[in-house]
Amino acid sequence: DQQVKQNSPSLSVQEGRISILNCDYTNSMFDYFLWYKKYPAEGPTFLISISSIKDKNEDGRFTVFLNKSAKHLSLHIVPSQPGDSAVYFCAASSNSGNTPLVFGKGTRLSVIA
Amino acid sequence: DAGVIQSPRHEVTEMGQEVTLRCKPISGHDYLFWYRQTMMRGLELLIYFNNNVPIDDSGMPEDRFSAKMPNASFSTLKIQPSEPRDSAVYFCASSLYDGSYEQYFGPGTRLTVT
Q1: Cβ pair B42:A32 closer than 8 A
Q2: Which of B42, B48, B106 sits opposite A43 (nearest CB)?
Q3: In the prediction, which pLDDT does B98 show?
Q4: Which residue of A has its CA nearest to B56?
Q5: A41 three-class SS
Q6: Does A105 sit within 8 Å of B103, measured CB to CB?
Q7: What's the pLDDT tens digit per position in B24-56?
C-alpha cells in the first residue's frame, strides 16, 4: 500500500501562472515532509520541507502547505518558469531522527512558455 | 564537495550476468541509502546503512540482491544473477544525522538487462 500518494502523474501550466502540486499521505505518524525536484538524467534534489508543527513554509517562489487533518500537502510555485519543468516528488518521514523517507511516485510538471 | 558519486552511469548487461553498482557518499555523512526507480513503483528504498552497518534491508526484492558498505566512503549494490525485470534507475543517497531529514542523491545508474 502506498503511504504517500501523488495522484496526478502530470501537470501543464503556462509560464507566469501558479503551479499547484498535491500530495496525500496515510500514515499519521509522519511528522516531516519534503519536496524533491528531479531533472532527466539527474538525481532528485531537495527543494523545500515542512515540519508537522507548521502549516506553511515559504522559500522564494516555492511554498508548501500542510493540512494535517486532511493528511494533505501541496507545493505552490508562483510564478512558474520554464526551468521549473521537472518531476516533483513528495516525501515523508516519521519519528525524529534520520528515518528513511517514503516517496510518492512523482508528478511531471511542464511549464509552457 | 563533489556530491554523491555513482558508477557506472549506464550499464547494459545480459540476463544471468552479475551486475555491481558503486557509490561514494558525501564525506562525513553517516547514512547511506540505495533506491530503485521504476515507472510502476516510483522511488523504492532497497536498503540503508548507518555508520557502515545495514539497518533495514526489507526493501531488497530478492536474494539475488545484496549490498555492502566496507567503509564510510564506499558502498556496492550487487545483483546476481540479473533479470530483465531488474531494469531500472538505481540511486544512492547519503545524509548526515544533524536534525535535517534531507538526503543528497547521486545521479543514478541506469541498468538495462536484456
Answers
A1: no
A2: B106
A3: 72
A4: A100
A5: coil
A6: no
A7: 999 999 999 999 999 888 899 999 999 999 999
User: Hey, is the C-beta of B31 within 8 angstroms of any chain A C-beta?
Assistant: yes
The alpha carbon dihedral of A93, A95, A97, A98 has a sign of: negative
Identify the pLDDT of residue B101: 79
Name the E strands within chain A. Answer: 4-5, 10-14, 19-25, 30-38, 45-51, 56-59, 62-67, 72-77, 86-94, 102-103, 107-112
Q: What is the mean pLDDT of residues A15-24?
A: 98
CB-nearest to A98 from B31, B105, B107 is B31
- pLDDT tens track for B51-77: 999 999 999 988 999 999 999 999 999
Query: Cβ distance A49 to A57 under 8 Å?
Result: yes
State residue A107's pLDDT score: 96
Q: Of A12, A23, A17, which Cα lies nearest the Cα of A48?
A: A23
